[in-house]
Structures are given as C-alpha cells and as structure tokens.
Amino acid sequence: MVRAFLAALLIALPASARNPPVDYNEPPPDPPEAGQQVERFPYPGPFQNVPAIDESRWVALPPHKEPWWSFGKVDPVLTEACRLNQFVTLPLNRIILQFQGDQGRAVMQVVPPRYRQLLIDSRKLAAPGVTYYFFDTAEPTCEVRVAANVPLRSFPAGRGTALPPADPKAIARKKAEIASWPKK
Questions:
Q1: Closest CA to 76 of 139, 129, 127, 142
Q2: Is-contact 144 82, C-beta < 8 A?
C-alpha cells in the first residue's frame, strides 16, 4: 500500500519537479578571434582618454593647528567659479594641507604656482605666483582660499554673483519679486 502511494505521488508530480535527463554536449568551439589582441580604434573613443588609477602617495604639507576657516582669505570670484565647476582642481591632485586643530579637522587640496596642470580653469582666472587652497572642490559648498597677502578679486560693476545670496532676507525679497511677475 505504501508503494502504491509513492508511485501515485511520483506520477502526480509536475514534470518540472523531476530530475532532468542527463544530456551532456561538448562546449562550442572558441570564436576565430579568440586569443588575439584587439587593435585600438584609430579615433578617440569614449574610454580612450580615461586616466589610469592613480595610486600615488599623498604629498602632505606641514599641518596647521588653527581651524581651516581662519586660514587665508576666501576669494569670492574664485569660489563662485569653483561652485560652477569652472575653477577646480583635479580629483587626482595629491597635494594636501591638513588642519588638526581642536575646533575641527579638515583637509584642503593645494595647487602651487608650479603645478598649474592640476587646475581646471575654463575662465582663465588663475594669477601667476598664487597658491590656491580648495575646500570641497567642485561641490556646492566649495571654497577657494588664497594667502592673506594676495589681493581679492571683485565682481565687475553691474554683475553680481550667479549664486543665491546667503542672506535669508535677500532670498525672501527675490522670491517675492519672482512671485510678482505677471502670469499667463
């Protein structure tokens, strides 16, 4: 009776629950180009100019004990260009300045005058002989600092910054001005 029950159970199982038949086939042969080196395209492709992974060591300048926000002066024109991704240092820039004070720790990327190749400067804002210190490069919070003895730049007359003001009252005035524009 048990054997009849097991036989009925095996017959009632769906076909997918049974073991598949053993059917071994030889793998297909290699394609004719297997083992040959592929030639590079004669024109630039999407990945032709990708740099190799940079595993070079960091070049750390002597650390500072003061907080990073008290170091040098923030240049407003360069900071705006950095936030708009027009004046940034390359991500593979390994020259850094560390701040290890009690009020906060930070790291800035440094571009000395002799290493201008580490700078992306689409608006040609770099001045000769100036060292630039980047905090949060290519981010919306980017700041570009220069030494205390370097004169700061200013925006041309009649043209302010393209970035929103930091003053909340100025933001509210701008929103009110936009809300007062005629609507269709």
A1: 142
A2: yes
Tell me the two tokens of residue 34: 């297997």
What's the pLDDT score for residue 109? 92
CA 135, CA 108: separation in Å to the nearest integer? 5
Report which residue type is found at 138: A
Report DSSP letters for the chain, one per residue. Answer: -HHHHHHHHHHHS-GGGSPPP----PPPPPPTTTTPPPPPPSS--TTTTPPPP--PPPEEPPPBSS-GGGSSEE-HHHHHHHHTTSEEE-TT--EEEEEEETTEEEEEEEE-GGGGGGEEETT--PPTT--EEEESTTSTT-EEEE-TTSPPP-PPTT---SSPPS-HHHHHHHHHHHHTS---
pLDDT in tens, 138-149: 788 889 999 888
Reference 141, options 172, 169, 166; nearest CA is: 166
Structure tokens at 22: 């053993």
pLDDT, tens only, 152-180: 877 765 566 666 666 778 778 888 888 88
% the chain with pLDDT above 70: 68
The residue extents of the domains of the chain are 59-147
